[in-house]
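Let us practice reading a record.
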Amino acid sequence: MPKPRTLGELKKSGYRSVSVKDEMRANLVRKLERGETIFPGIIGFDDTVIPQIANAILSRHNFILLGLRGQAKSRILRSLVALLDEEIPFIAGCEINDDPLRPICRACVERVNECGPATAIDFLPRDLRFVEKLATPDVTIADIIGDLDPIKAARGGHALSSELTIHYGLLPRANRGVFAINELPDLAGKIQVGLFNIMQEGDVQIKGYPVRLPLDVLLVFTANPEDYTARGKIITPLKDRIGSEIRTHYPATLDHAMAITEQEAWTNRDGSGRLVVPQFVREIIESIAFEARQEKKIDKRSGVSQRMPITCLENVVSNAERRALQNREEKTVPRCSDIYGALPSLTGKFELEYEGELRGADTVARDIIRQATARIFRKYFDNVPMHGVIQWFELGGNLKYAESAPSEEVYAQLKKIQGLFEKTQTLGLKAKDHPALLVAGAEFILEGLYALKKISRNEELGYHAERKTGRSEVPSEDVGSLGPRRRPIN
């Protein structure tokens, strides 16, 4: 059946006007009845955030997502588009997507009065019904609401007070759709006043001229909880007009966090199957974020974004990829040492407290990697005796190899440690597995023992017997990498 192209054809088709909030509510009801996933790709919020968002939509509320950085707030808002109809009719050429049956702008009202059933209509796809704005202090009321356009007035011969001279801002252009503002408290107070006025009364003043503009729009926002308080930068009347306040959070379990990282990280690079990322490497990378969120030297108010393990994994894979290419190896297998090579992807993802500033970002990041390694090592080897491996070092053995050394060369050195490769069977590895995998497993064991201070490691000696210093802290020369030494920043 052909689409209606005029107002008369649209009325004959039986079309009925529905507000955007009722439209989204109806589509959500259908999804819930069918058991469909409401927000595909959003992991870890099934029992917490998503039910609250569903309640807000069912209640036809404007709502705000409160959470720290990297908690998928913007992604959730963009996913709301899936709850809109695939397309809706609007008066062709209208700047604010007027409903053909209920036009609100002066130009469309006059056009319908003049053309009647012959008024041309077009269809607006759902992707164009989402308007997003990042709040910054330089945003003006003209950006959000609109302004008078002297050129329109001159060309049309209209008075400046006429609605026909308005250049509409982002909010009116989101009419019959979703309007999202990220970091709401960063908007200037007078902009916030303009928002709550149109949310409640539908009245807008542009250059002192009152304009009645009953917009049909779902308003959604994001904010940091620290700013969204009486002591922050949000005005109380606007806060009062937001229907639902929903708190987001970081992944609660390691499995959820790993699923997010696997979904978002760019690791499938050549499609050849050369890359194999061991499970324990993925777990250490994910645990880094969990440890960082508990670390006293890191500012908890700024949060530790879920982007940290994503970029870390990508950097770890790249470090392993570079080594494999240089050595012409057929397998690319990241090792624990590659995590230290990914420090640049970690240090920019957290803000330090005063104590952390004294130690330096690199040193704090290395400590966190060591804590994460210890956590995962205990998971696999808590009840596995390591006396033989530790004794090898206590009897004078030491092991040193370059981070860029090929797997075969490192394998030959690791084989000197009696019983080391047998311990990798706990990781699911077998003697016939590729040397790169066995090396990764064996290095994980050594890194775990180092993390638990059963053995030591430094640049000069590599892995060697633990020196009893009588101190709880790691000696300052004990760096967390097989690569170049980095001194703590004082």
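A brief commentary: DSSP finds 20 helices and 13 strands in the chain.
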